[in-house]
UniProtKB/TrEMBL annotation:
Keywords: DNA-binding, Transcription, Transcription regulation
Name this polypeptide is given: GntR family transcriptional regulator
GO molecular function terms noted in the UniProt entry: DNA binding; DNA-binding transcription factor activity
Transmembrane segments annotated in the record for this chain: none
UniProt domain HTH gntR-type: residue ranges: 2-69
InterPro entries tied to this protein: GntR_C, TF_FadR/GntR_C, Tscrpt_reg_HTH_GntR, WH-like_DNA-bd_sf, WH_DNA-bd_sf
Length: 202
């Protein structure tokens, strides 16, 4: 993508993640081109990229709609996150010191913590855990999965999120793999996958 398309793409992606357009928002090429003062071609290219990334879905002669994941799709994304993060926590208990694990408390004990939205708090904590692996590709993959799940995040209080994160840190310090996986499932709200027939075709 050229710099103009990239700028439009990045800003629209940010606005979608912040739920600025709502779950039923509709974006029109001409309106986006005028708002960002770019050509319709650049607006179209940015929006097509957002379709490829499953942030938008194009409906001919109607515009671009916010992509809403089906229940099955969201479950698959959460399961993918769980499988990925199991690898993260296994690395942590095998290779990280207690001091490194305790540093995770800094993510949930900061002065700004109570004022942050739950989805921001959750994102920061899980990315900080992933960064302990030293694997930048894993961190980028988790960040992309978080971008999907944050759009469907249940609006929990930060106190509820904090207690789950504290329980996970305690399990990491105990280096109890079974308990860690249990705490991770509770934090991610992992549920059994629904039958494939539940998947909404688009």
């Amino acid at each position: 993508m050229d710099s103009i398309v990239n700028r439009v793409y990045d800003d629209l992606r940010r606005r979608i993640l912040q739920n600025e357009f709502g779950p039923n928002g509709v974006l029109v090429e001409q309106d986006i081109a005028e708002e960002y003062k770019v050509s319709r071609g650049s607006a179209r290219e940015a929006m097509q990229k957002l379709c490829e990334a499953k942030f938008l879905i194009k409906r001919p002669r109607k515009g671009y709609f916010i992509y809403n994941f089906s229940t099955r799709e969201m479950q698959e994304i959460i399961h993918t996150r769980y499988f990925l993060e199991v690898g993260v926590v296994k690395h942590i208990i095998a290779h990280c010191t207690d001091e490194q694990i305790r540093d995770l408390y800094n993510c949930i004990d900061g002065e700004e913590y109570p004022t942050l939205p739950e989805k921001v708090v959750n994102r920061q904590f899980h990315l900080q855990m992933a960064e302990l692996t030293g694997n930048k590709f894993l961190v980028e993959l988790l960040e992309s999965l978080l971008a999907f799940t944050v759009r469907k995040a249940i609006h929990l209080s930060t106190s509820s999120t904090k207690s789950k994160h504290e329980a996970l840190i305690e399990a990491l310090l105990a280096r109890d793999e079974e308990l860690i996986c249990q705490r991770l499932r509770e934090d991610l709200d992992v549920e059994p996958l629904l039958p494939q027939s539940d998947l909404a075709f688009r």
